[in-house]
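Table S7 (text form). Paired inputs.
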Amino acid sequence: MVVLTLGPISELNSDYSMDCYFRQYWRDERLKFTSSDSLKEIALNNLMLDMIWKPDTYFHNGKEYYVHTLTTANKLLRLSPNGDVTYSMRFTIRAQCPMKLTFYPADAQSCPLIIGSFAYQSHDLLYHWHKEGVKKENGLTMPQFELVSHPFRNFFAEFEVGFKRENYSMVRVDFQLQRRMGYFLLQIYLPCMLIVVLSWVSFWLNREATERLTLGITAFLTLATTNQDQKDILPKTSFPTALECASIIQFAAVHFFTKTGFEEINLPPETSTDTEDDWENVYSSEHDQTYGKMANSNHKFSNHIGAGVGGKYPNDKVANHTGSNHRDVRFKVRDDVEDYSSRAGKESGCQKFIYCITGNEEYRTELIKRGKHRGSSINSVSTLDRMSRIKSVYEYIIATTSANA
């Protein structure tokens, strides 16, 4: 067999087409003749094919087949003095190719072509390849695949005929194909890389910013559209890809660890008997009306507050500061905030991962409490965002390089 062209190869239909010269050799003792110096081989007309015996060769995994007839039937028949018959023809065949698309588009396919007899069993007819059974035409190229090798072999196969199994002699060639990545790099990978890099801008935005949500949704929809365009040329597979599994896990993990404590803070009512005057500065109305120095009092009040915040009250819940022109300035420092800050965030990364996988409800409740205790920093830039600004870049480069290796 001499392969002239190979392709097109259809992932949607799981088949491939091939144009080749197919030659068969057999010996028929009834066709012997006496040779001479002027007659060592006889070239017979194609019409003689209907008058001699020939093997009923068929293609086990073939779908369509036709012999070229331009400008005449492309067949050759020759007879040697010892009864050897050479039968050659050119045809195009479309054969089935079971494809594994798990690693698409960085995949490799093996497309077989199985040849044998339709009716004769192995004890009647044997098939075997010539020493150079399968060759390819020089300059054979394909736009999307590269023909790496084409190993061939002889084998026996059993088929159930009626109520018994019969043994048949067959030959087989496997076309080992490696997909070229040039098209996918230019049309899919590079655009998706640019979209992903653009989405990293969200790591520099606060989590409550509207622009962050819009940027994430736009990037997701663009990637989903690009992915859907490629699925239109692929069969509807029932198995999930590694990328889909990773996406589900990572979204669940990010939601579990970061989307906690995003509600309004409802502090429990204090049991203290302090009045409102204990929390804020209450100026003497008589003093304000007489001297009209509200601004000066406010300035002093601010200074007192600043001095009070700078001070340390490890055990007191209420701090007092007395000014010369106003009543006591009081504010409360919650001891549990300081105590809690010393306890929070001591879990190791392994413990956090185990809590996430097992869905530990106590740990989740603890995260919500931490979000409440952070107060005004609940919606600030998270530690995860700051880490992702650097970590995501390196992880994306490593993952992309490993997938294409």
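Next pair, protein 2 of 2.
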Amino acid sequence: MSNQKLLSELLLKFPFIRVKDVTDFMDTILLIIPMNKIVPLAASEYITKRQISLLVKKIEEQLNAKVLVSYSPFSDKENIEVALEALARSNFKKGKVSALNLSFSDSQHALLYTFCKNLTSSERDKWESLVSGMLKNFNIKITSFLYEVKNNPEPTMMMLLRAAKKCQPFDLQGLFNELDNGDYHIESLDWLNGKLDNLRKKGFLLRSHDGTYRMTLAGLEIVPVSKSSQSSDIERVLYLARKHL
């Protein structure tokens, strides 16, 4: 039996529960439950908190997926979420925030699920400030920001050196911008600064008093060179050409 059919059967008793698919988070299921359907005692066409807990457990066990529950108090919820999605698109690179969902405890308090990829700690701070500022206009307070995260791998030492060779001389922010292109996860400027300090200690980088980095001969020699279009030398030529256009 397919997962979709199995999920439909599990939700058969509760047709008012909506399931939201989240792009890039196929192992996560988001259930949206109207708050006016939640009652203290079991009744037809309603659901109790205990039934919700049992349903979540059953779905997680049978579909081997993580289940999140979002409570919806009013019809304007989706319009507010659309506005938040537009806020994310206008302030972050494409793909940083894949989806989001508000879950209300009452009409004025909610938690926000944010499905994100490679979102740095400073970007999270910015996002929380933007969301809180916008929802203040709706008289809604976010009690908790919950992040569902899928990150690309962090760059290896060799990838850091290739990027350094490509764009030297560079400062910390410049290298961060070069690496923050969707291929790698860079947690923060502090994280990157620590990695560059390690490369300096190994003798692969030099840093001047103004914070500018350059590679040493040892650093240049350790980066492989080939005749392919992906070679570090060709990457640098193309980078310099684009920089001076």
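The domain at 1-70 is CATH 3.30.70 (Alpha-Beta Plaits).
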